[in-house]
Amino acid sequence: MKIKTSRSAEDIVVYQPGKPVEELERELGITGSIKVASNENPLGPSLLGIVAVRKALDGVHRYPDGGAFYLKRALADFHGLTPEHFTVGNGTNEVLENIAHAFLDPDDPVVFSEGAFIVYLIVSQLSNCEMRMAPMRDYTHDLEKMAELVCEKTKAVFIANPNNPTGTAVGETALRKFVEGVPAQTLVVVDEAYFQYVHREDYPDASKLIAEYPNLVAVRTFSKAYGLAGLRVGYGIAAPEVIETINKVREPFNVNSLALAAAEAALGDTVHVEKSVRVNAEGREYFVRELAALGIPFVPTQGNFIMAEVGEGVETYESLLREGVIVRPVAGYGFPAHVRISIGTPEENLRVLEALTTVLDK
Q1: H or E element at residue 355
Q2: What structural domains does the chain harbor?
Q3: What is the tens place of the pLDDT at every residue in 275-293?
Q4: From the CB of residue 69, how many other CB atoms can be counted at a distance below 10 Å?
Q5: pTM for this one?
Q6: β-bridge partners, 89
Q7: Which of 192, 208, 267, 355 could form a disulfide with 325 if both were Cys (CB 3.0 to 4.6 A apart)?
């Protein structure tokens, strides 16, 4: 007898992580592969974070600080807010899931964009919501179309800024207009995972708009610029009453002791972040120049990755695997002709372009 699954699990989209280097090399019997598929920091983790992890090892027989007291205090100083403005999660994925648990009921309308970060779809499915998806315009969130889908019953809107996998972002004027146009009871969740890499001048820092818009939630991560993806630390910023509700559904001890220590230390590692941003900017310019020279269309990016149009995305992905290069096919996001390439070190970027030239010439 088949055990009946829940309504939310029946048709849920399953998140597909990037293929590990070890798995590829084991499958193909090769060595020297590179992974540019998961938008990780090619420079590695913050050294201050690593030092903090080593110091914290002696205390792992104790439960972690369930309230993330010291990390929240550091975040408050960093953002010029109070600790009550923050919730901390096991990566931003858990923060997004906690927002869903706290505010979404079955059949509630939820709005997000087609081609946006797939976790918005997943948490909405888990909550059995009515999902309203607006088409993109020029690979970018069309906030006007999204606004048309919002009604008085809409509980939440998710906006990735910049968006993954397209790398596009919306400006401050457009975001303000959108937030001011939705009902006051509708949460507007702005996911800023790639905040540090943005280079457009009118980019809005959602964390600085919280005081003006009580229904706004900004989400940040330590996985990208800080290089702590393996430790899984993300956080949400919102009005204290919103944060209080989110924390009611948060699992006890949801972030481990090593991750808390690393995040607190990495937050002050401006040297590592600045170098990461500089290397990314140089890599972004390299890809823009070289892809254009090869005649490969691409989407201008505000993140640490670039989405290139290669014809058959999955086929190109599989061909690149045989060259020892792991990129990300994005057909599941609605872009079957594209692959997403994480910007790496200069050596990795060169390797990607050489491999891409090889497979597209065949």
Answers
A1: helix 346-361
A2: 7-44+270-361 (3.90.1150.10), 61-266 (3.40.640.10)
A3: 999 999 999 999 999 999 9
A4: 11
A5: 0.93
A6: 234
A7: 355
